[in-house]
Specification:
four-stranded antiparallel beta sheet; alpha+beta; two-stranded antiparallel sheet; 2 helices; Folate-binding fold
Length: 109
Amino acid sequence: MLILECPYCGVKGEETEFAGGGEAHLKRFGPGSSDDEFHGYLFSKVNPKGVHFERWRHAHGCGKWFHAARDTITLEVYGTYPAQTTEPPKDIKDKISAKRPGWSWREFA
């Protein structure tokens, strides 16, 4: 079971306290986008073995969306941070790099 901490209200709880919202840091395409862009946004998701960035909502608390960095193999949560951030904070990147040498942040299109 995942243990997450809401970066807004500070509540720490099991994943059942929160609601998953898919991959984080995606460029969203909606009205006015091409069919290929919208198709890619809806259906082309990565499902990595290892480090993954996800959107979560504090469903049974403050209701705010945030991002979580976690490992899909070990279920270790490297940290959480506000959803308005375009990339993980340096301390989370450093924590990931310490556990997974050679890991690097990928730019999201």
